[in-house]
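Dear Dr. H.,

I hope your travels went smoothly. While you were away I took the liberty of generating a structure for the chain from your last submission, since the lab meeting agenda had it listed for discussion. I wanted you to have the full record in hand beforehand rather than looking at slides cold. The sequence, exactly as received, is reproduced here:
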Amino acid sequence: MAKRYAKALLEAAAEAGVLEQVAADLEALGPHFAGKEVAGFFANPAVPRARKEAALAAAAERASASPLSVSLLRLLVARERVGLLPDIARLFRDLADERTGRVRAEVTAAVPLPAASLEALAARLSAATGRQVHLTPRVDPTVLGGLVARVGSTLYDASLRTQLRRMREVLSKG
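The corresponding predicted structure, in token form, is as follows:
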């Protein structure tokens, strides 16, 4: 069900020329509706529809959401499907990335990487994949040094931890 909403929203956003704005709206709004308390509020049939719409309007205003995003929220309230919003947001992002030739990547390092290093890494990964790469940085001290990048299903592991493990395997084999 969420995929149908995401596809329809993608087409409408592309046609209106607000694809990036709607993607940003959903990125901001999706996590707020994933919590049990908020989901419970919107799923509760005892809460009047007008109160639900007012809550959505307030959330959309705080996020400076586009009119198309607000229309989606109203539709979800009317059909009692607000709980689908986090899934719609995730699917919309994936569909929008596919349409625009972007790919998401996660880079993990032992320490936070400076912005210049992240930009250089994104450029290298873009050259390697032939697509625009959007990096999400993570910190994991167990990496020890170097970094690990996951682009889609491809893993680029240049971590010290992996190099030490490989060295250990070679030495143990004699």
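Two observations you may find useful: The chain has eight helices and four strands. The first strand starts at residue 102 and ends at 109.

With kind regards,
E. W.
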